[in-house]
Design brief:
By secondary structure, the protein is of the alpha+beta class. It contains 11 helices and 16 strands. It is globular, with a radius of gyration of 21 Å.
């Protein structure tokens, strides 16, 4: 049987560039090469799309020195990757795309829009789910309609910080310290701060504004951090539950990827009925956002009350060695090769 061609996109212009490269290596190593020819396309932090010769080049970082540009044509009649290099220009027909891009300019509906224009099947959520899921504020607005508890919040825009005292007063009028300050669009906890007083809140505003125009301020929920993976198209399945034991005060970027003391537990003991409540809520949120393919949905289990509180959704979760999404499905009997194959299969289902 003739092999199909799968293009894997990685890197990107977001703050999660390095994590994307690691996820992409995991996924490429899991793709069935008897069935697929893999075309690797790396996107630099500056936004340059490059043809990448090997997985080893990704691991070493040498891919950024590629002398060949590789872009996906938006022309639906072509369905190809256009490579421009020292030997000239050539087109590579592509059957399906796996956009292993976390964060802005990849997980947020932008690349999904390009692939919709090109009418090429692709892994993961579509334009709407990707865009809304990436934006914490608009996710909250959708989840508000479901009756699922979430942290009380205040939203601001970067322009509001011109009147810094007014912005600080707005938050203090509704929330008590400590509060979490987040860019509405960012991933891997980039730009997130915990503020215990007015001075820290001002500094947190400035930090969050480096990452997005919209800023979200939330009450602090004290409790266990729990995550659930979802998979499917028309029929959606939820995995079991994973728990995060953060080494830092909260599970920020450094605690996730650089602190060995941070731990994850698959299948933690939970109060009766809470696992099913979280699994149902994860599927409901995924469907409400028009999700398709895969996502990881994060919750808190509030201390003392055992209230399940929605935190956020990740529509293209990590596939690193410590990422919860593949670990949760592995615990359900889906190894990484099967999980990747299932997601590629779902890409074709949506296009049909």
């Amino acid at each position: 049987m003739e092999k199909k061609t799968i293009a894997v996109l990685f890197g990107g212009q977001s703050s999660e560039h390095e994590v994307s490269c690691i996820s992409a290596v995991t996924i490429m190593n899991a793709i069935n090469t008897d069935e697929y020819e893999i075309v690797r396309i790396g996107i630099t932090k500056e936004g340059h799309w490059l043809y990448v010769a090997s997985v080893d080049d990704i691991t070493s970082g040498a891919w950024r020195n590629s002398d060949t540009t590789a872009v996906i044509s938006p022309d639906a009649t072509r369905k190809e990757i256009i490579c421009i290099g020292p030997e000239g220009t050539k087109g590579i027909p592509v059957d399906v795309v796996f956009p292993v891009l976390h964060g802005l300019y990849g997980e947020d509906g932008t690349v999904q829009g390009l692939l919709e224009l090109a009418q090429i099947p692709y892994v993961g959520c579509g334009v709407i789910a990707s865009a809304v899921g990436m934006d914490k504020l608009y996710t909250k607005i959708v989840v508000d309609t479901l009756g699922i508890a979430q942290a009380t919040y205040v939203s601001l825009r970067k322009s509001d910080l011109k009147d810094m005292n007014g912005a600080l007063d707005k938050v203090e009028a509704k929330l008590e310290y400590p509060v979490f300050v987040k860019p509405s669009n960012a991933g891997s906890s980039k730009g997130i701060s915990k503020a215990h007083n007015r001075a820290e809140l001002e500094a947190a505003f400035v930090e969050a504004a480096k990452h997005d125009e919209k800023i979200l301020v939330e009450e602090t929920i004290i409790g266990r951090e729990l995550e659930c993976a979802v998979l499917g198209g028309t029929d959606v399945e939820a995995s079991g539950i994973g728990e995060i034991l953060a080494a830092a005060e909260f599970y920020d970027y450094d605690a996730k990827y650089n602190d060995a003391a941070s731990k994850t537990i698959i299948g933690p003991e939970l109060p009766e009925g809470k696992e099913e409540e979280i699994r149902r809520a994860a599927v409901a949120i995924f469907k409400a956002l028009d999700g398709f393919g895969l996502s990881r949905v994060d919750f808190f289990l509030e201390k003392d009350t055992n209230r399940v509180v929605f935190n956020e959704i990740n529509t293209l979760p990590g596939f690193t060695g410590i990422s919860m999404y593949p670990m949760l499905w592995n615990a359900k009997g889906l190894d990484i090769r099967t999980l990747v194959a299932k997601n590629i299969e779902l890409a074709y289902q949506r296009r049909k």
